[in-house]
Design goal:
The complex is a heterodimer of chains A (192) and B (237). With 192 residues, chain A is mostly beta strands. Chain A has helices spanning 3-17, 33-36; strands spanning 19-28, 49-61, 66-84, 87-104, 109-126, 134-136, 139-151, 157-171, 176-179, 182-191. In chain A, a hairpin with a 4-residue loop joins strand 8 (157-171) and strand 9. Chain A starts with a helix and ends with a strand. Chain B has helices spanning 3-20, 27-34, 43-51, 84-99, 119-128, 208-233; strands at residues 60-66, 103-108, 133-147, 166-180, 186-200. The chains are: A mainly beta (192), B alpha/beta (237).
Chain lengths: 192, 237
């Protein structure tokens, strides 16, 4: 089989069998941004925040009970520290991630490793913390995930999981590198 | 290595060996899929069956029906279908029987005329065609995919593109039953099954549809031989 045919077959197979997914979660951890961005008084940690990620899940090996799946997705990750209408700090990022799952169909759990790339990493602020406003450079990170799955009577598959993200952000304006490592609790719905 | 570590290592290896194994086929489910009747187990029913007698006229007309492939709840379409090639296998048997004067002719019952795949509905459609006998061909297939020991390398992603760590085992069971249209007398039944096994690279494996089709062709070949042997050995009139 020529390489072109092989790649073509692979692409078609992936397109046909892809499923959608949506993950929502909350992460906690990392260095204090308040310290890194000049010592202003706000409580935002570099790894913390509410996030949602959506994308596609491709089966790589549809074997049972040991199945392997790849997932790509993008989303939004943010945290707000709002004291008043005129005194707030928000830390937002757009994560683009690729995860590779081992899925045990018998015991209904998944383990994953993967990478994430955070873009549009912005600290926006109003009021007394206005000077903290800055942009972090795009950053690569690593992800590890463990999930427990269950299916509803109507066939939908959902999971609850724990993920660890390991990432560092560089705040060029303050010449500081902040640790954004975080533990997150996730809830995922698979849309076949 | 201490004895404790050796034991743990061996236990892990054993667990992996066990967990790689195939989960096997669900033969009960396959049997359910090829059935055309659900027998009622009571004395009256058994007595009624004994009172039925073969009454095919000489040069009987034969209607052939290919039972719709079963479809699972979450499937948009079944994994396989009856192809023209499959149907031609039975056309060959029919022409052989016609040549030997066992039947006067055979024709297929098209799916658009059939509301339900159960025996009573099919007999009614066959009767509308003025057929004397009804041959029902049914089939069911299942694919069991699992990883072999090399499959664990898939955890690193790239090996899924070149390591043959996946196994697919496909079973296709086909069955044929010949009924009297007038009184539901069962002249004969024949069954054949075929199993195909293949080892493949995860990213480039054949689809269930392709695997089932391969097993189906082999199974129907066997069913054809079995069926013609039985028809010739059974006194139809």
């Amino acid at each position: 089989m020529s390489l072109r045919v092989a790649i073509g077959t692979l692409v078609i197979t992936l397109q046909i069998s892809a499923a959608g997914f949506l993950t929502v979660g909350y992460g906690h951890g990392g260095d204090s941004l308040s310290n890194a961005s000049g010592g202003q008084d706000y409580s935002t940690q570099a790894g913390s925040g509410l996030f949602f990620v959506g994308g596609l899940l491709f089966p790589i090996s549809t074997t049972t009970p040991h199945r392997f799946e790849a997932q790509i997705g993008a989303g939004y990750l943010f945290q707000n520290d709002e004291h008043s209408k005129d005194d707030s700090v928000s830390w937002s990022r757009i994560p683009i991630e690729a995860l590779y799952y081992y899925h045990n169909t018998r015991n209904k759990f998944r383990l994953a490793w993967g990478a994430t790339y955070h873009i549009a990493n912005n600290i926006d602020s109003r009021g007394v913390n206005k000077s903290a406003e800055t942009r972090a450079e795009n950053a690569w990170g690593r992800i590890l995930v463990v999930e427990k799955l269950w299916s509803t009577e109507t066939g939908e598959t959902m999971s609850i999981g724990l993920r660890h993200t390991s990432i560092n952000y560089r705040l060029s304006a303050f010449d500081k590198i902040v640790n954004g490592d975080a533990w997150s609790v996730t809830f995922t719905g698979l849309l076949f | 290595m201490s004895n404790n570590y050796k034991c743990i290592f061996l236990a892990c290896l054993l667990t992996l060996q066990i967990s790689c194994a195939s989960k096997g086929f669900n033969r009960g489910e396959l049997k359910e899929q090829i059935n055309v009747t659900r027998p009622e187990f009571n004395d009256q029913e058994i007595k009624n069956e004994f009172s039925k007698k073969p009454n095919l006229p000489k040069n009987a007309k034969l209607a052939v029906y290919f039972k719709t492939p079963p479809q699972e709840r979450n499937q948009s379409h079944p994994d396989w279908r009856w192809t023209e090639n499959d149907k031609s296998v039975f056309a060959e048997i029919a022409s052989e029987l016609k040549k030997e004067g066992v039947i006067s002719g055979a024709f297929p019952i098209v799916h658009s005329l059939v509301n339900d795949d159960d025996l009573k509905s099919l007999r009614l459609v066959a009767a509308k065609h003025q057929a004397d006998a009804l041959l029902i061909i049914s089939g069911a297939g299942q694919t069991d995919r699992y990883i072999n020991n090399l499959g664990w390398t898939y955890a690193l992603l790239l090996p899924a593109l070149f390591v043959p760590g996946s196994e697919a085992e496909t079973l296709f069971v086909s069955s044929a039953t010949l009924w009297d249209v007038r009184n539901e007398y069962l002249y004969l039944t024949a069954e054949a099954e075929s199993t195909k096994t293949s080892t493949y690279v995860a990213a480039f494996g054949k689809s269930d549809k392709e695997l089932i089709n391969d097993a189906k062709t082999a199974s129907l070949g066997q069913l054809k031989v079995e069926l013609s042997k039985m028809i010739k050995g059974t006194k139809l009139q």
